[in-house]
Amino acid sequence: MAFELPALPYAYDSLAPFMSAETLEFHHDKHHQAYVTNGNNLLKASGLEGLSLEEVVKQSYGKNAGLFNNAGQHYNHIHFWNWMKKDGGGTKLPGKLQAAIDSDLGGYDKFKADFVAAGTTQFGSGWAWLSVKDGKLEISKTPNGENPLVHGASPILGVDVWEHSYYIDYRNARPKYLEAFVDSLINWDYVLEMYEAATK
User: Fold this and answer.
1) What is the CA radius of gyration of the chain?
2) pLDDT of residue 108
3) Is the pLDDT of residue 188 over 80?
4) What does the pLDDT read at residue 1?
5) Most buried of the four, 4, 30, 47, 56, by CB within 10 Å?
6) Which residues carry a binding-site annotation for Mn(2+)?
7) Which family does it belong to (predicted)?
8) How much is the mean pLDDT over the chain?
9) Is 157 helix (H, G, I), strand (E, B) or coil?
10) CA dihedral 172, 176, 181, 183 (to 10 degrees)
11) 177 with 166: CB under 8 angstroms?
């Protein structure tokens, strides 16, 4: 199954001023495209060609670093574009998601503080995550292209803290970018969709 670059689900300038058209053009058209191109080259003769993307990520972890890095980043970015939308973010969550955040994470304010802290304290490149593990929500962080799939969890929300995700717009102010992501960009409907799939 060849990797393909998905189209963005919105116009390049839709997420401004929280994420600029310039950032999206570089991030989607250059960085994500590179993961697709390199991933396809590394997928050839890997023995994993017929598998789903999720399975390629899981089965290449710890065995084929080059393929894992590119497949992981491809998976992460396919969802990252959908985890954002114009006029997103904020505290009006779908009821089922709000109830889970209240019971598993101590409420919205604690979720936001812990999620931003995970992204802020991820040293170097990586991601911060909200995942379902053993039926419960948890917050985590991973280096580089790693994601919760390889730790027995199902990611339902992730934020990219590689510098190319925020440097054009925020320079070195990663916490400011993370606050803007939570307050103004999260597509909670897509998070709910992934939550429902992960808790079936």
Assistant:
1) 16
2) 98
3) yes
4) 76
5) 56
6) 27, 77, 160, 164
7) Belongs to the iron/manganese superoxide dismutase family.
8) 98
9) strand
10) -170
11) yes
Residue 3 DSSP SS3: coil
Q: What is the DSSP letter of 165?
A: G
For 93, list phi and psi in degrees, rounded to 5: -90, 150
Q: What's the residue count for the chain?
A: 200
Nearest to 58 by CA among 195, 135, 152, 138: 152
Write the pLDDT tens digit of every residue in 108-161. 999 999 999 999 999 999 999 999 999 999 999 999 999 999 999 999 999 999
Count CB neighbours of 17 within 10 A.
9
Domain boundaries, the chain: 19-81, 93-196
Task: Report the C-alpha gap between 3 and 122 in whole angstroms.
Answer: 28
Q: Indicate the annotated binding residues.
A: 27, 77, 160, 164
93-196 is classed in which CATH architecture? Answer: 3-Layer(bab) Sandwich (3.55)
pLDDT digits (tens, 9 = 90+) for 98-120: 999 999 999 999 999 999 999 99
19-81 and 93-196: same fold? no
- The C-alpha atoms of residue 198 and residue 194 are separated, in whole angstroms, by 6
Peptide bond into 17 cis (omega under 30): yes
